[in-house]
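Retro notes
What went well: the complex prediction finally ran end to end.
Inputs used:
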Amino acid sequence: MSFDSSSVLVVGTVAFDSIKTPFGARERIVGGAGNYIGWSASRLGVGAGLVSVIGEDFPDAELKAMESAGMMLNGVEMKEGEKSFFWSGSYHMDMNGRDTLETELNVLADFNPVIPEAWRNARWVMLGNIDPALQASVLDQMDQRPALVVLDTMNFWMDIAMEGLKKVISRVDVLTINDEEARQLSGERSLVKAARSILAMGPRYLIIKKGEHGALLFHMEAEQLDFFFCPALPLEDVVDPTGAGDTFAGGFISHLAAMDRTDFAAMKEAVVVGSALASFTCESFGTEGIRAVDRQALSARIEQFRKMTVWQEAAIPSAVAG
Amino acid sequence: MSFDSSSVLVVGTVAFDSIKTPFGARERIVGGAGNYIGWSASRLGVGAGLVSVIGEDFPDAELKAMESAGMMLNGVEMKEGEKSFFWSGSYHMDMNGRDTLETELNVLADFNPVIPEAWRNARWVMLGNIDPALQASVLDQMDQRPALVVLDTMNFWMDIAMEGLKKVISRVDVLTINDEEARQLSGERSLVKAARSILAMGPRYLIIKKGEHGALLFHMEAEQLDFFFCPALPLEDVVDPTGAGDTFAGGFISHLAAMDRTDFAAMKEAVVVGSALASFTCESFGTEGIRAVDRQALSARIEQFRKMTVWQEAAIPSAVAG
């Protein structure tokens, strides 16, 4: 596979996670935002050029699997004698909260993303959740303005690097955060007001991820705030939500890349495709769910989203019209 | 107005509320489930026959306003020398939680709903949140099986009267509760499993109200669990969510009554209409928002729901198909 005009440049972690949920536990399975994003892109047949860093403990077989799935790993630096980034966490009974038990930065401590020469004209750029300064440095390395830059971040960076974060946010097209983060970033309680305020910071689109409560896409068009809501698919069991947000983001940008569109209508579809892919991630531990998805399974799941959201079978109901 | 085949028999409180939210406070304004349900029905031009109880402190002007809006009050007993039901509560900063500060049952303490003779063949019955024993006694008084019975309840009754509650639930068509209540009633964490379990208790439909996160409609069809999701409209400001669930329920059953339908497709529309009406209730204190709604405002709001939920402008995206 070679990096082409529909490939997505992905910057994000490739790491180990130890995860405990009410459904069980897994020790040191592979994870990391870059990994989930790459797997998600691969399910849409979109090439992902990964820029990341790993230690020599990261399994070769895993790298091979990623490559066969369509990921390009020229941008993944392997540091001899060092260990990969490690995170461990435990989810609460209701799966909506989690506690971080351990974080070992390891190779991530002095990560300095270098974009391979051939990827610097990437049209699609997905900046996974890392230090805003590194996200900015990636944009600095680009030869031209990409067609679309999507940035994911979290409250941690708002706490310690708000200024730098706002600076890089002003340079991207789409920002993905959760509802609490939207409130923190904007200082507004109302999500509508938060969205207005954040869209005034630069991005053309804002996606507020609400986990089991779905995702909201906001867009300012002719001074008018437009929005779209996509529910999360109610699942029999949410086994492990780790990586669901990254899977979503990967599916979102990859769908746009595959269609070569960045308009609002395409964004809506991309939110549904991202949500559908994320639902698979939640059904199993780690990357197990997403890597098993084929086109048939994905199409069937998107059909479930269609069934779940369509209500305009009749026209506007007669009891209300007029 | 006279009670006819499209009128809704409504059983629920008509009361005073004192409410504190981050947007302000109101003392002893009119409220109560029956009141919100009745106002909601009136916005769709549907007659609501109210069965309730009030004290002599309840303002005449208010009763007149309700009657002019289309509510029939023959079933509202006025107890001389007694006081109306009173509730006071304070909402948390995020509006998702509230504390009850005071509850004075007053006339509600020995409420014994008596259905007026002429309403006993009602085809549409909305049982607002009251003691399950009273909800059952209403059904006992009906001359025939109504076309649709919707029952609203809450965790309070699950705590103190689970057996009676389950008995009356087995006799209704639609149950409306929130997500935590669905979990409590079923003993299941997963909403999908909770829905299966609750639908096995008798109701053909289950609506899980998630407040600012929307509403889920579940239906079992040929052993297959079908569902529909309607988001809540993101609002500039949620001023006072009191009565939103009752407004929703009133709009839901009244839309079905107006269309004379009880099929799944109609239920989906009814969930949207109920959600649209509830959004008005949230925008002002008490019944102020819902009573000001006219058909034009409602149609415009339903159009907002359409815009917010439609994503199938193209066919299933090419990047995913096949």
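What we learned: The longest strand of chain B covers residues 71-79.
What to try next: split runs per interface for comparison.
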